[in-house]
Amino acid sequence: MDAKANNTDTNAGADAGSAAVGRRSLLGGAAALGLGSVALGATAQAAGAPSRARPEGGGRFQGKSVLVTGGTSGIGRAAAKAFAREGAHVGFCGRRAELGRQVEREIRDAGGEATYLQADVRVDAQVRGFVDRVASRYGGIDVAFNNAGIGGGKLPHEMSVEEWDDIQATNARGVFLSVKYEIPHMLRAQRGVIICTSSSAAEQARPNGAAYTASKRAVQGLVKSAALAYGTRGIRINALLPGTTDTPFVRPPGIPDADWLRYKQAWGPLNVDGLERMADAEEIARAVLGLASDDFPYMTGASVTVDGGSTAGRKMVQPNTT
Ligand SMILES: NC(=O)c1ccc[n+]([C@@H]2O[C@H](COP(=O)([O-])OP(=O)(O)OC[C@H]3O[C@@H](n4cnc5c(N)ncnc54)[C@H](OP(=O)(O)O)[C@@H]3O)[C@@H](O)[C@H]2O)c1
Fold first, then answer.
1. Distance CA 53, CA 217 (A)
2. Are 277 and 309 in contact (CB under 8 A)?
3. Which of 7, 100, 213, 275 is most open to solvent, judged by the fewest CB atoms within 10 Å of its CB?
4. Residue-range domain boundaries for the chain
5. Ligand 1 mean position to 144 CA, how many Å?
6. The one catalytic residue among 116, 212, 230, 263
7. Per-residue pLDDT tens digits for 169-189
8. Considering only the top CATH level, what class is 16-25+57-306?
9. How far apart are CA 179 and CA 181, in angstroms?
């Protein structure tokens, strides 16, 4: 099995991510959202929405309103669940409604509060509808995790203009649209925390990673600029740079569990010694919650790498002299 196709989030220059791009159908306009009746910009609490009262004790995010893009799978799904476990009211999106409803059900069955809303981060009206509806349901937005993203590794001369545009539209424009519509809610409250998913590939380029690395560098640039713009208004914004993480993003579709396990176990030769393994989504989610918590009031405009040290430096490989 060769999992090292051409995903740009793998040290080996693999490409399971591009397969994922093709797997997913594109949604059309705002109608596909099921948000047609949402009054954009509405901030009044919807009938039946949970109370915003913040009980003492419980988790770090008790009663807080948390928004997650790309919560139907992988890192976003793990983060949505972790926020809910710590008491947050979580509004999350993704295009795949069946998966979204499943994650929502799992969170509620575990005693948490979550709402799935179908939205495509490439579509202006859908992002606006999603953000405003989360704010309306949960009484504002305390934390936003702008995480939706796709891979796609190809050499520039082999990549179509449409493929390039789709990666930028999802990874860079999607984060811009999310921030654009989240900020007004946070400005009203004069507080808020935003975390945007970039990638260790933003720091460590691969030959087939031009489109992906460019998109994830764009996220870092946006984050730094926004940190400067909104610091006096109580809003912190940071970029998270995960290393290769065991999610459907890197796992080739249809690969048997045993083969994937073998591949995973051999993962990470470029990580620091002792951490030669893939991350799991839950440990990346823990970093997200840490950044979103009140533990880092002094941190904004930062690029936080959680990658097993793969970008720390070039590991020496001893030549075999025997
Ligand atoms: N896994 C890694 O090795 C790794 C490493 C570094 C960075 N990252 C980044 O981490 C983020 C999450 O990736 P993951 O590993 O968790 O991958 P994943 O399991 O494939 O999840 C990606 C999520 O993004 C959503 N998404 C993609 N395109 C979207 C769109 N147009 N509109 C709305 N949602 C969309 C997907 O939902 P739908 O398909 O339902 O729309 C899904 O929920 C991405 O930004 C990725 O670039 C991943």
1. 39
2. no
3. 275
4. 16-25+57-306
5. 15
6. 212
7. 999 999 999 999 999 999 999
8. alpha beta
9. 5
